[in-house]
Amino acid sequence: MDRLVRQAARNLKIRGLRVERDHSDPESFFVIGPQGFPLDSPSGSWRFSKLEIIQLSENLNNKTP
Q1: Would you tell me how many other CB atoms lie within 10 Å of the CB of residue 13?
Q2: What is the 3-state secondary structure (H, E, C) of 29-59?
Protein backbone atom coordinates (compact mmCIF):
# COMPACT_ATOMS: atom_id res chain seq x y z
CA MET A 1 0.00 0.00 0.00
CA ASP A 2 2.91 2.40 0.64
CA ARG A 3 3.81 2.31 -3.04
CA LEU A 4 0.24 3.31 -3.90
CA VAL A 5 0.37 6.17 -1.40
CA ARG A 6 3.63 7.47 -2.91
CA GLN A 7 2.14 7.25 -6.41
CA ALA A 8 -1.02 9.05 -5.23
CA ALA A 9 1.10 11.78 -3.58
CA ARG A 10 2.95 12.31 -6.87
CA ASN A 11 -0.36 12.58 -8.73
CA LEU A 12 -1.64 15.12 -6.21
CA LYS A 13 1.59 17.11 -6.47
CA ILE A 14 1.03 17.39 -10.23
CA ARG A 15 -2.33 18.96 -9.42
CA GLY A 16 -0.75 21.54 -7.10
CA LEU A 17 -1.40 19.75 -3.81
CA ARG A 18 1.24 18.74 -1.29
CA VAL A 19 1.05 15.62 0.89
CA GLU A 20 2.86 15.75 4.23
CA ARG A 21 3.13 13.07 6.88
CA ASP A 22 1.63 13.85 10.29
CA HIS A 23 4.62 13.45 12.62
CA SER A 24 2.39 12.79 15.63
CA ASP A 25 0.66 9.87 13.81
CA PRO A 26 2.75 8.08 11.15
CA GLU A 27 -0.40 6.56 9.59
CA SER A 28 -1.94 9.99 8.89
CA PHE A 29 -1.17 12.68 6.34
CA PHE A 30 -2.07 16.30 5.64
CA VAL A 31 -2.95 17.51 2.15
CA ILE A 32 -1.94 21.13 1.63
CA GLY A 33 -3.75 23.09 -1.07
CA PRO A 34 -2.24 25.59 -3.51
CA GLN A 35 -2.84 28.51 -1.11
CA GLY A 36 -1.00 26.72 1.70
CA PHE A 37 -4.06 25.67 3.72
CA PRO A 38 -4.84 22.06 4.64
CA LEU A 39 -7.78 20.36 2.96
CA ASP A 40 -10.54 18.69 4.96
CA SER A 41 -10.51 14.92 4.81
CA PRO A 42 -13.72 12.91 4.26
CA SER A 43 -13.85 12.31 8.02
CA GLY A 44 -14.06 16.07 8.63
CA SER A 45 -10.59 16.56 10.07
CA TRP A 46 -7.34 17.62 8.43
CA ARG A 47 -5.87 14.13 8.75
CA PHE A 48 -6.05 11.79 5.79
CA SER A 49 -5.49 8.04 6.05
CA LYS A 50 -3.46 6.21 3.42
CA LEU A 51 -6.65 4.95 1.79
CA GLU A 52 -8.13 8.48 1.71
CA ILE A 53 -4.97 9.79 -0.02
CA ILE A 54 -5.33 7.11 -2.71
CA GLN A 55 -9.06 7.78 -3.12
CA LEU A 56 -8.52 11.55 -3.40
CA SER A 57 -5.92 11.02 -6.10
CA GLU A 58 -8.19 8.65 -8.03
CA ASN A 59 -11.16 11.03 -7.74
CA LEU A 60 -9.13 13.94 -9.07
CA ASN A 61 -7.74 11.80 -11.91
CA ASN A 62 -11.28 10.84 -12.95
CA LYS A 63 -12.32 14.49 -13.30
CA THR A 64 -11.51 16.29 -16.52
CA PRO A 65 -9.02 19.13 -16.06
Answers
A1: 12
A2: EEEECCCCCECCCCCCCCCEEHHHHHHHHHH
Nearest-angstrom CA–CA distance, 27 and 35:
25
CB 47 within 8 A of CB 22: yes
Are the beta carbons of 51 and 41 closer than 8 angstroms? Answer: no
Tens of pLDDT, residue by residue over 10-58, are: 999 999 999 999 999 989 999 999 999 999 998 888 999 999 999 999 9
In whole angstroms, give the CA distance from residue 8 to residue 52. 10
| Strands of 48-49's sheet in order across | 18-21, 28-32, 48-49
